[in-house]
Amino acid sequence: MNIVCLDMEGVLVPEIWIAFSEATGIPELRRTTRDEPDYDKLMKFRIGILKEHGLGLKEIQQTIAGIDVMPGAKDFLDSLREVTQVIILSDTFEQFAGPLMKKLGMPTIFCNTLEVAENGEITGFRMRVKDSKLATVKALQSIGFDTIASGDSFNDLAMIKASKAGFLFRSTEQIKRDHPELPAFEEYDELLAAIKAAL
């Protein structure tokens, strides 16, 4: 039995923090897991910038409300879900993901949660489990699933390498150079064909 594990940001939807950086004019918030492999370090940096500028959850959610999924993403996901089970594994947060999941037809997503004060200030975050993408893939394998994984960032590499088949999608030139053994695709039809071939 197969199950496909997909990253969310950069694969199905634009990077939320980049969109928020553009909306606020704060260039430091453009940093993502494509730039910083250490997610804990990245999130602490982001929370510090938000505090410095007096920004909280409400402002980020207002930006997310205006984000649409990537062109072709919903059709890709619909086509994929017709032939196999799909779980989105993301390091994003429940407070961010909801509106975007509605636009994608409410696929299953495993993600994390933010700690938010009553005034809306983001004070911290709780990861669902350490190394959540790899841990989830290994857990699925332990109950009899073969996993096929795809993502674009440093934090996707472990789940991609641990899976029966794994693919980079719209990744950076640096990650593609560092991992020539991983097939890399730029278009949904290519990724869909590769996943179907691996099923």
Question: Would you mind describing this structure in some detail?
Answer:
The radius of gyration is 17 Å and the shape is globular. The chain has a seven-stranded mixed sheet with strand order 4-3-2-1-5-6-7, with helices on both faces. It has 199 residues and is an alpha/beta fold. The chain has a domain at 2-13 and 70-111 and 128-198: 3-Layer(aba) Sandwich (Rossmann fold), CATH 3.40.50. Helices cover 44% and strands 21% of the residues. It starts with a strand and ends with a helix.
Short description:
The protein is an alpha/beta fold and 199 residues long.
Major pleated sheet = 7 strands, mixed
Quaternary form: single chain
Cα-atom Rg, whole angstroms? 17 Å
The CATH architecture assignment of the domain at 2-13 and 70-111 and 128-198 turns out to be 3-Layer(aba) Sandwich
Query: Can you tell me the CATH topology of the domain at 2-13 and 70-111 and 128-198?
Result: Rossmann fold
pLDDT averaged over residues: 96
Strand percent estimate: 15-25%
At the first level of CATH, the class of the domain at 2-13 and 70-111 and 128-198 is Alpha Beta
Tell me how many strands there are.
7
Going across the biggest sheet, name each strand in turn.
4-3-2-1-5-6-7
Q: CATH superfamily membership of the domain at 2-13 and 70-111 and 128-198, which one?
A: HAD superfamily/HAD-like
Annotation field: number of helices: 9
What would the principal axes of the Cα set say about the shape? Answer: globular
| String of helices and strands | EHHHHEHEEHEHEHEH
Task: List low-confidence stretches.
Answer: none
Helix content: 40-55%
Distance, first to last CA: 9 Å
Structural classification: alpha/beta
